[in-house]
Design a protein that fits this description.
5-stranded mixed barrel, 5-stranded mixed beta barrel, 29% helix, 768 residues, Arc Repressor Mutant, subunit A, EC 3.1.13.1, alpha+beta, OB fold (Dihydrolipoamide Acetyltransferase, E2P), 34 strands, 6 domains
């Protein structure tokens, strides 16, 4: 019996007439469940679905099994305890408006891809009466989306909540001097046309420079003209490469005049109603090249007889809320940026330098306002209590990680020597206790070396290194985690609205994909809906020291959900914490500034607290800052890819040791461990056989020989082509294919699966 399920039903999705006819043993069909989830994205938890269909007792158990089956089949995914169709558009999404339909209605695509298929089309609704935002073609908007019933039209409608600021008219390009002496601008992005520059508008640009230009109006004849606004540097310099990423990802990098004026007018905070902590020898421990210091630490033994062997840990964080107030130009710009973005030789900061590097930076020997948390731990690493304080502090020393570690290891210098016994050793003693608590908690322990690009003076790559991970790094990391937990606990206890840092458990589909991959390596992962980080740690321990250790760590990382911000708490799977909020970096993350304001309001710590207007907007703000975080990560990754590609461009035909990091129908992705760089080997370049793709085994194998290549294989490759601007490299395989692992029977099963796959459109193989 057909039933319409509407998001406006507010409960039982069936009509009154239908309900009268339903028997007590009524159970909805799969299609009805999927339809309800699509039309009620904000009420699509297991309990919501059971309530909507009036399921009780054994029917709820049946529903649980049905939903698990739908997840196992890859039809549904689970985020924040809400179910959704895989590839479905989120209820609140960032959209790009690209055109109009025949009736003049605006049409949009999601700004970020949802999967490998075609992006869904969204029909944009404009508010009646003209009270809401009025977007146009080319705008990027934040919108609430609703699925439609029209099988022939757009899959969704969208109601615009916010229009993002439009990009400037300036575009990037490469300045070229042609043989006839004329000047052209070679576009960086394909959709941009080639431009002509007249000599009077050259502005000092030289051949090969990356420039920012202002296009003029297109003339009726010939190419459009432009004038050079800024010479960003040679194409081979890092400054140019990072600027490409800044523009490509639409990252705001120039502070408006009113923001700069506001920051310059700010006066330093005074002691006023703050606690005076200037005699407490707090120290900052940061990277040697850090320009801003937003956290300082101190530790001492607990003198309470009721807590033998315990410690008191103090973490002080720059009081950004003292200077950046809600609704000001500074605040609006910080929210638009969402976070600072870090490139190898530059930082695009969230706040102007007057705030980030001066007034809020916890400089050595200078009075600075801070929001501090004092935490008491038992000897086994369990937190006993904590309290927050708004203080005035004075950093006793600015230390670098290697410098602090060297002092503990017996090589103090002039700065660390005088504070070794009173400050540094108690910090390390406290870390040893907190580490016991961490070991008991068993967070996900991925071991992925972080590569760092070292640059020459001209901004080009000098070399790529993997910095040593010291106990000094781990100490600060664990202190910050505990401070973040304390912030979330306090705000929850005070019933104060906040933005959590959430991290969902891996979806069942990702678990199954990881399980299949591990089986190809002879490893197993237990099944179960309630996965724990310890189960992944067991896998990682088994490959510790093995050839495939790095790859397994990488694949386990890929199986994890993406952490994000939300006013609704689901816990943090990776850290194995029930509640977690970012508190320790308000200079570079807007989420932390919100948490600071929440603490100030909840604990009545003075001016600058969270307002009701802010609290009401936390859901929208969470979507925005989660997006800016992903934007920053993509820009940073693209810049590193371009730098490494440019670095290796002089090594065409060189041989490299590599490992296979991805297998597709089109070919093999390989990674150069020495550089952390990726490249591609097209299947068409693999000689000697017709290669078939086996998705389950993550391999390409020859139809005739049965030999091939599999994920995690170590191989030797030759670099044959580099496109530095795209950050792309193409390689040639030098290692012969190997006999595929497993029995002859399993090989023929894989062959059958692959042949079935190849009968579908888009499957490809090559014979050479």
């Amino acid at each position: 019996m057909a039933r319409r399920i509407s998001g406006r039903s507010h409960g039982d999705p069936r009509t009154a007439d239908t309900r009268a006819k339903v028997k007590d043993d009524y159970r909805p069909s799969r299609d009805e469940i999927l339809r309800y989830i699509a039309e009620n994205p904000d009420r699509a938890g297991k309990r919501d679905i059971a309530k909507a269909f009036a399921l009780r007792g054994e029917d709820r158990i049946w529903l649980k099994d049905m939903l698990r089956d739908l997840q196992d089949e890859g039809i549904l995914t689970k985020e924040r305890k809400q179910l959704a169709r895989v590839g479905a558009l989120p209820h609140v999404a960032v959209l790009d408006i690209f055109g109009r339909d025949g009736d003049g209605v605006l049409l949009a695509h999601p700004a970020e891809p949802l999967g490998s298929g075609e992006p869904p089309v969204v029909s944009i609704r404009v508010s009646r009466g003209g009270n809401g935002p009025a977007p146009g073609i080319g705008d990027r908007v934040l919108a609430k989306t609703f699925p439609t019933d029209d099988a022939t039209g757009p899959a969704y409608t969208g109601r615009v909540m916010k229009i993002f600021e439009k990009r400037t008219e300036a575009v990037l390009g490469v300045f070229r001097v042609l043989k006839d002496g004329t000047f052209r601008i070679e576009p960086v992005e394909r959709r941009q046309p080639e431009l002509v520059v007249d000599k009077e508008f050259q502005n000092g640009a030289k051949n090969g420079d990356l420039v920012e230009v202002e296009p003029a109006r297109a003339s009726r004849y010939g190419l459009p003209r432009a004038k050079v606004l800024t010479v960003l540097g040679s194409l081979t310099s890092e400054k140019a490469v990072s600027m490409i990423a800044i523009h490509a990802h639409d990252i705001p990098h120039i502070f408006p005049a009113d923001v700069i004026a506001e920051s310059e007018a700010v006066k330093p905070a005074t002691l006023d109603q703050r606690e005076d902590w200037r005699d407490l020898p707090l120290v900052t421990i940061d990277p040697a090249d850090a320009k801003d210091h937003d956290d300082a630490v101190f530790a001492s033994p607990d003198t309470d007889d009721k807590n033998p062997g315990g410690v008191v840990v103090t973490v002080a964080i720059a009081d950004v809320a003292a200077y950046v107030r809600y609704g000001t130009a500074l605040d609006r710009e910080a929210l638009k940026r969402g976070n600072s973005v870090y490139f190898p030789d530059r930082v695009v900061p969230m706040l102007p330098e007057r705030i980030s590097n001066d007034l809020c930076s916890l400089r050595e020997g200078q009075d600075r306002p801070a929001l501090a948390v004092r935490m008491t731990f038992s000897a086994d690493g369990r937190k006993v209590r904590h309290s927050f304080h708004r203080v005035m502090m004075k950093s006793a020393a600015k230390l670098a990680y290697p410098q602090a570690q060297a002092a503990i290891d017996g090589v103090p210098d002039d700065k660390t020597g005088p504070i070794l016994d009173a400050v540094l050793k108690p910090l390390w003693d406290a870390y040893a206790i907190l580490k016991r608590g961490r070991d008991s908690r068993q967070p996900l322990e991925l071991d992925l070396p972080e590569r760092k690009i070292l640059l020459k003076e001209d901004g080009t790559v000098d070399r790529v290194i993997v910095p040593e991970r010291l106990d000094a790094h781990k100490l600060i990391e664990e202190f910050m985690i505990q401070a973040n937990v304390a912030a979330a606990e306090t705000l929850e206890a005070k019933r104060q609205a906040l933005v959590y840092r959430i991290h969902d458990a891996p979806s069942l589909a990702k678990q199954e994909s990881l399980r299949e991959f591990l089986q190809t390596l002879g490893l197993s992962l237990a099944r179960g809906a309630q996965m724990r980080p310890a189960q992944f740690n067991g896998i990682l321990e088994r490959v510790s020291g093995a050839d495939n250790e790095g790859l397994v760590n990488e694949v386990v990382l890929r199986s994890q959900s993406q952490a994000e911000y939300s006013p609704k708490n689901i816990g943090h799977f990776g850290l194995n914490l029930k509640r977690y909020a970012h508190f320790t970096s308000p200079i570079r993350r807007y989420a932390d500034l919100i948490v600071h304001r929440g603490l100030i309001a909840a604990l009545d710590l003075g001016a600058g607290g969270l307002t009701q207007n802010e609290a009401d907007r936390l859901e929208d703000v969470s979507v925005l800052i989660s997006g800016t975080e992903r934007r920053a990560m993509a820009a940073e990754r693209d810049t590193v890819d371009r730098l490494i590609a440019a670095y290796l461009a002089e090594r065409i035909d060189d041989r490299f040791d590599a490992r296979i990091s991805g297998v597709t129908k089109s070919g093999l992705f390989v990674q150069l461990p020495q550089y952390g760089a990726d490249g591609f080997i097209p299947v068409s370049s693999l000689d000697g056989d017709y290669y078939i793709y086996d998705e389950t085994a993550r391999s390409l194998f020859g139809e005739r020989t049965g030999k091939g290549y599999q994920l995690a294989d170590r191989v030797e490759v030759r670099l044959v082509e580099v496109a530095p601007m795209a950050g792309a490299m193409r390689f040639e395989m030098l290692t012969d294919p190997k006999p595929m692992a497993g029995s002859k029977r399993s090989f023929h099963k894989a062959k059958g699966r692959a042949r079935a796959s190849q009968s579908r459109p888009g499957s490809r193989g090559r014979r050479r």
